[in-house]
Amino acid sequence: MNDFDDTMNDEMLPAERRQHLIDWFKQNQAGSSQDLARMFGISLSTIRRDLDLLASEGLVRRTHGGAVAIRSRTTYEPSTDLARRTAVEEKQGIVNEALKLIEPHQSLLLDTGAVICHILADEIAQLDIPLTVITNDLYVAKALTYRQNITLIVPGGACRFGSYSLLGEPGESFLKNLHCDIFFMSAAAVDESGVSETLLELVHLKRAMIDAATNVVLLADSSRFMSRALHRTVPINQIGHIITDSGLSEEDRLKFPERKPAFTIVEI
């Protein structure tokens, strides 16, 4: 499966074994404890201890079922497939919390280019309340098509290769004339200064969506925090509410402004 197969086992010296793990995370963004244990031929308890140690040294960030590599998000952008396999339980918990904010007859803006918004769309599709949903994401649009209770609006734009995102015009101009209740936003990176993205065209679209919304709710699992991507989207005080998981440490949480944004921490 990779160069490290059959070279790592419980009999190896702990330092040597962990170096193999470090090398693996240099090439891969995320892994589950079960997959890593099977891949490297070690026990689940051993891999958990190793991941805990690497996390304590700041080399990886632990998730409920495994770990993600800590690396600069300045230009790094994980594939949609990888994102779907990363922090799965965390994303679902965040979405479940976001659903509590949705009420009948609201108008919702759903962000584009993020798996967490795709999961939210799948859940909204199961709701039996009247809603208006505006999105520039083709996955979201497909999930909400043929739902009689949902008025679906797709502002339009050019589809970015390899993604579900429609960027540019006419979408940005269309959004300037909208007033929506909630914008469910995603982000490549978040820190106490603001939210940022790897793609400038995506930043322009998100800013238009923020301007169109009464309430901006950021949905981001803890692996997105305390890093910065290349392009700043908005300062943190333009975000009304952040929903994330308990992987965000209290120390990092306290670096954010005291009153805004409000935080909801989902226990996993």
From TrEMBL:
<dbReference type="InterPro" id="IPR050313">
    <property type="entry name" value="Carb_Metab_HTH_regulators"/>
</dbReference>
<dbReference type="InterPro" id="IPR014036">
    <property type="entry name" value="DeoR-like_C"/>
</dbReference>
<keyword id="KW-0804">Transcription</keyword>
<dbReference type="Pfam" id="PF08220">
    <property type="entry name" value="HTH_DeoR"/>
</dbReference>
<dbReference type="InterPro" id="IPR037171">
    <property type="entry name" value="NagB/RpiA_transferase-like"/>
</dbReference>
<keyword id="KW-0805">Transcription regulation</keyword>
<dbReference type="Pfam" id="PF00455">
    <property type="entry name" value="DeoRC"/>
</dbReference>
<feature type="domain" description="HTH deoR-type">
    <location>
        <begin position="14"/>
        <end position="69"/>
    </location>
</feature>
<dbReference type="InterPro" id="IPR036388">
    <property type="entry name" value="WH-like_DNA-bd_sf"/>
</dbReference>
<dbReference type="GO" id="GO:0003700">
    <property type="term" value="F:DNA-binding transcription factor activity"/>
</dbReference>
<protein>
    <submittedName>
        <fullName>DeoR family transcriptional regulator</fullName>
    </submittedName>
</protein>
<dbReference type="InterPro" id="IPR001034">
    <property type="entry name" value="DeoR_HTH"/>
</dbReference>
<dbReference type="InterPro" id="IPR036390">
    <property type="entry name" value="WH_DNA-bd_sf"/>
</dbReference>
